[in-house]
């Protein structure tokens, strides 16, 4: 559906408002981590004071395996938010993603809301972002990809998949014909890694396999348990549908399924979808993810508690990760991924 830059910008403003002020989370389905528990290891010999969670992501060293996930851009209100998020990422030395850059392709009025990221975070991994709908319909996918990457000096480009959201969006695009073909073209003709990301309904093993075959270098599973983007659109439209509000694959289930593909494919596995505390982060890592990401929790914490509050939040999450690693006898992240979680009855 062809629409004006003003419509795109207004929709982004609506999304930001709903995410901050309404309850658009899954109601009767969660992230699935409650089914798993850690096995205590009484004879741990780990030196807690020497534990180090530093890891590499997109050829850059980061202090924690964490990504402030793609959120907002393309509206005036997002400029200050994005500057603060980028400053947080730079101070903590963690990765960060931008919101969909679609609006900047249509009109450069708010391009500064995207450029703010690299300006404020010059040394950390930065992920660009565009929707699957734009990828599917592009007649110049390589040119579009390069423009998005160059716009923010991105280290990777995220393609976000949101068929459920588009289905319930009044202005939504429900024709994804040619999507995989264009992804394959993009991956084959640009050097910057392409990362595939859902927005809350999850990427299962079958879909991940197709994406990896097309050449993507990262899978962000973005399962159920956090923000339901179907719910966001239902709130915008004042037309609630209980069944589809909760549509999606739990994040834990996604991680377990997609991890199996690491036997054949080399890629970064990113866990997101309902990541709300350090225990969720720890379980994501223990189940096999390389990086963990969160968005709306970070956004709300920023608005309520400022940048210092978000820094404290993320540092406390990873202090909990270190505590759990210590109590399960794991000196490093690689050891932590060796079956330290047990499934409950």
Keywords:
345 residues; alpha/beta; TIM Barrel; eight-stranded parallel β-barrel; 12 strands; 13% strand; globular
Question: Which term fits the overall shape?
Answer: globular
Annotated CATH topology: TIM Barrel
Gyration radius (Cα, Å) is: 19 Å
Number of helices: 15
Please outline the major beta sheet: 8 strands, parallel, barrel
Poorly predicted ranges = none
Order of helices and strands, N to C? HEEEEHEHHEHHEHHEHEHHHEHEHHE
Strand order of the largest sheet: 4-5-6-7-8-9-10-11
In CATH terms, the superfamily is Aldolase class I
Description:
This protein is α/β, with parallel strands linked by helices and 345 residues long. The chain has a single domain (5-343), classed as TIM Barrel. It is built from 15 helices and 12 strands. It has helices spanning 5-21, 76-92, 102-106, 112-120, 132-137, 141-152, 163-168, 179-189, 205-214, 229-237, 242-245, 251-259, 278-287, 296-327, 333-336, and strands at 36-38, 55-57, 60-62, 66-68, 95-97, 126-131, 156-161, 194-198, 218-220, 268-271, 291-294, 341-343. Strand 2 (55-57) and strand 3 form a beta hairpin. Helix 1 (5-21) crosses helix 10 and helix 2 runs parallel beside helix 14. The protein is globular, with a radius of gyration of 19 Å. The mean pLDDT is 92.
